[in-house]
Amino acid sequence: MSNNAVSDIEIQKQAQQQQNNILAILKSGNATVVNEKLQRCRDFKEGKDIPVPFCYKGIPTSTLSLENSPKEELVLEHVQQFQKQFQLHYDERRNLFLYPKNECDLYKFICTTLRPQKIGYLELYNYEQCARYMSFFIAYEQLDPPDQFPKVIPSPTNVARWQKGDCFDLAMLLCSVLIGVGYDAYCVYGTAPRSITSKNESDLEYIFINNGIKEDDEDKDKDNDELKDNEFAILPKEEIVSKYDTKIQKQKEEFEKEQKRIALTIDDDEPDQMGADYYAGKRIHCWILLKAGKRGVERNLFIEPATGRIYQINESPFLTVDAVFNNKNFWINMKLESKVADLNFDEMDTSMNWEYVMLDTLVEQSQQDDEDYNYGEDHNQQQKQVDPQQQQLQDIAQILDMPPPWPPKLFIDKEAFLKGTPLGESTVFYKKCKIDSYAPYSQEKDGLVQRYTIYQDYKRLKVYEIRYFYKHRSDKLVLKRRFPYEFKTIEEYEPGNKPQRKTITTIDRQLRIILYLSNVEITMVQQKELKKLERKQLKNTRTEMIEFDAKDKKFEQRDLIHNDRYMGQVKITKMTQKYELSELYPASEQPQKVVIDLVKNVIRVYYHMNKGEINPQVKELKRENMHGLGKLNETGVEKKNEDALVSQENQRIANLEKECLTHIKNQEDEVKKDEEQLRSQDLKLEKTLHDKARERYKETLKKSEEEKQREQADKDYLFPYLEKRKLLGKEVLNYNEALDIQKDVMTKLKERLLSRAAIIQKKLEEERAKLDQAEQMQQKKADPDDNEYINIQFRIDILEQRAIRFESQALLKYEEMDRKLKEDKRLNELKKK
């Protein structure tokens, strides 16, 4: 025991010593910890930020790193003087954060850092979608330390390119985009709780948790709802139930439910409590104010840029508001002790609770116009009686108007935009929920873009449901919901798949429900259930009228046994088939529904009702009699003691049963074929229009490059030899490479010259052979033909001259090529050796 105690004390002393060493290093200022944001800005200033985006190319460096423009210097001087006067008259300890440094180490008026611009993506046009997208697109970084303003405010263009930034960077980028698309947006900074500044949403509900949940489209009619909707239909009477028995049964069920809940509930299931916050009430944060009036915004709203959540002013979690600014002006809250819900943001230009930095020339001019406007001769006198001090203020206002934004145009690359996040995937934890997001086409196997994991407890240990969202799949699967503890899976498809499926519900491999979309052949939803030891056709609606076969066929009991592909042999206990009403025949003669109960051995036929009828016509028949009447004797003649009409009607109903059974089996065969086809085909991800256009552009670019290579090959005699040895683009070759190129060129030239000489020699030999043959023919003939002999001799003379001339030219070409190679600058190494 004593040894263990000594060892524990030594461990504590070592830990304390290490902590003291770390604190000493931090206090001495020799720590090597560098803020990542400052490092990015430093790399950009020093030119290490490679590659430089094209939006910065062609811009004078003076606008980025060297100096401010005269107009910016004038406004900056006014802002600095304003801050001194403010601290002198109001609060000397209050920092207004008016002119922070940018990434080029230049002081800039913060309003000029906003760069209103509309970016060409539809997802950024609506403020809700834009805020949600930007919260994932920019990786959030907390302020360090959290109670101080950032040392650098980079341009929104660089923030969008780096895809990293703190609350000020993210808020200013979002504000620039919102103003660019027409919203009246402002940046607000003040204090906020730790859950907001740290982007902790683990205790908040996920606002899109109901995505993928649709109303149940299944037919909710019970088996006893056999009547078609009719205003004269007699509704079934309500069953008389004792209120006391109902109360006792309800109490019993609630007790059993509570006991089951207690048995399954974890006792310590509660959210994790965060420790005490050292910076409570001091954490600086920046967010967005969206004022009403533009783009259909009905009331003022707060937007948290780190999470994309939208709050009402009186329900926001923010603690205090220090200042508000946009690209036109900067407003200071003069009552810091006021709650956020009590602030009036619509009176920033007129209320004494707000102080603005820049004089708004438009407001001053409009007020002056209202004061000067009058009827009659007093108008000219009022114009002459202008206050000199007010005139001076107007002149200053015209001089000190807001300079244009200094950052370049906002640009977001298409590839980066499609990723949605810096890494192409993200994981966020919410209250009893985890959301995994993936960029389109990043999951090549199944096209997964999002996964919701919903838990039953705060510890996220017991999974209730998992939702998989898919895109661009060839089988058109868009949503898959899995309930692990219920052994239940629901798959939802979008229109366009070949089997025309809508949903497939599978429960423990015992029950499968398939809903089909309507098409030309199937005008209403078809629903089928497969269940162990029971098979039930719920509903099968068809547009075509059934034609009954006049031939009779013996109906055997073995036909009721069906070989199911999942459970083997199953017995059909009940079949139901419904029919639509046709206008070609009387309604009372057309069956509406036929229910075949194979357990009770009864057939019920419900007929359609004529207009004005209240009660439908229902027939209940025994199956044994039905099939007995349908039999034929050995001679094939119908029994004489039976009524012909009754026999025909019974035969018709018996055929309905056969038709229903055949239709069930045919449907099962079709489903089996659809599943085999679905399993056999390879899952592929369909390409979007953008991807197709991009591939087409790449093909066009490749063709243009090939054409350039052909043109270059025509101009450069060494192009094919350099391409063969992969030396294209090399200005100077070494000795071995130059020697190989020389050998290749000379060898190719020699082969080409020898081949041409061989062709000339071959033709010359052929003509000489013809000449010998012509001489022999002339010797045999009494009257020889000299023209043919002369022509052959002429061709021989021409070929001999051409051979001599080619031989002399070949030597010249060989020498000329050798000289050309020696003079080529790329082969200069040959001259040195």
Automatic annotation (TrEMBL):
Domain Dynein regulatory complex subunit 7 MORN positions? 422-673
The principal localisation class reads cytoplasm
Q: Which residues form the CEP76/DRC7 peptidase-like domain?
A: 284-351
Q: Which residues form the signal peptide?
A: none
Q: Which UniProt keywords apply?
A: Cell projection, Cilium, Coiled coil, Cytoplasm, Cytoskeleton, Differentiation, Flagellum, Spermatogenesis
Q: Where in the cell is it found?
A: Cytoplasm, Cytoskeleton, Flagellum axoneme
* GO biological processes: cell differentiation; cell motility; spermatogenesis
An example of a Gene Ontology cellular component annotation for this protein is: motile cilium
Instruction: Name the family the entry cites.
Output: Belongs to the DRC7 family.
- Protein name as catalogued: Dynein regulatory complex subunit 7
Native source organism of the sequence: Paramecium tetraurelia
